[in-house]
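User: We ran a pulldown and think these components assemble together. Before we commit to crystallization trials, I'd like a predicted model of the whole complex to look at. Sequences follow.
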Amino acid sequence: MALKDELGLREGFHTLEHEALLNIYFTSSCIKKAATEFFRAYGLTDVQFNLMMLLWYQSPEGGGLTQVDLSRMMLVNRANITTLIDRMEKADLVKRTAAPGDRRCHIVRLTANGEKLLRDVEKAYRENVRSIMGPLNTSQLTRLIAMLERIRTSLTE
Amino acid sequence: MALKDELGLREGFHTLEHEALLNIYFTSSCIKKAATEFFRAYGLTDVQFNLMMLLWYQSPEGGGLTQVDLSRMMLVNRANITTLIDRMEKADLVKRTAAPGDRRCHIVRLTANGEKLLRDVEKAYRENVRSIMGPLNTSQLTRLIAMLERIRTSLTE
DNA sequence: CATGTATAGTTTATACATTAACGAAGTGCC
DNA sequence: GGCACTTCGTTAATGTATAAACTATACATG
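Assistant: Here's a predicted model for the assembly, 314 residues in total across the polymer chains.
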């Protein structure tokens, strides 16, 4: 259904460019809502899960990432990571550890509990993603990704 | 540039579906950051501008929308509209007025000041949107919109 | 080595989003 | 007329995001 009808608007958008931009914005919003709903059953938020996935798949050999690493990979301000990690430490999902050779850094690592939870959730998450994106075939997904990359490039010029 | 490189990831995404989903999510995030930056010069946020646009273009004859109308058109909870309108009333952008025949409702309307500001900002905003979406031609925009609509449909099943 | 500069993390103030619970007001129906 | 049910807006608790100002630490260079 067209976005105009989903939002119950009386008037449409003036330009195709604006309609496309709002489609990206509201589709992302819908995805976020669905993710929030999905993770609630596990006592997690989508942001917390994303952070745990980064710790699991993007950590170098020794394991763990600094808070600045996380802020860069999540495209958020580093101030935001502080309170995020505070909450996740309280929930026994991650822990801050010392960085050898740089006393400014905190290396964030999954706790045993966090690692176990991640393993439990991940399979269902991947199936969910596949089913959400199911209606698009491989070539459509590739084209979608290429278009979004071009938009991001145009944004940073 | 591929999302993996923009975020500085060591490992890529496991599936094309996941990569596409994260592309939507992060592209929307980039758009939001650019919009925030754009509106800062006018003392507005992107959310406030969006609400003012709805009041201007989506109001019925008498003018104005209820808070529930706004929450539906913005895809947010109605509780969120309360504090949003509180802030915007304080900034003299909108006002709550009585709804004839239904004392439960507040009809939200632009103030003279809000209307003037909207007119000032709108032209530059539209040019901005065109330039951001510039790299995609009409047929690409149409296909992008169609794909995002299909994803939203699949989300609500 | 000393000084200047850059980087990592935190704090504070603010904005936006959710859910749950509540009060006030409209609606339907006997 | 009265009672149940719904709808509209608000409040409180919580999570996520920002920018700006701050501390502590590391580094580079003269």
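The CA atoms of residues 97 and 107 of chain A lie 5 Å apart. That may be worth checking against your pulldown data before setting up trials.

User: Thanks, that helps.
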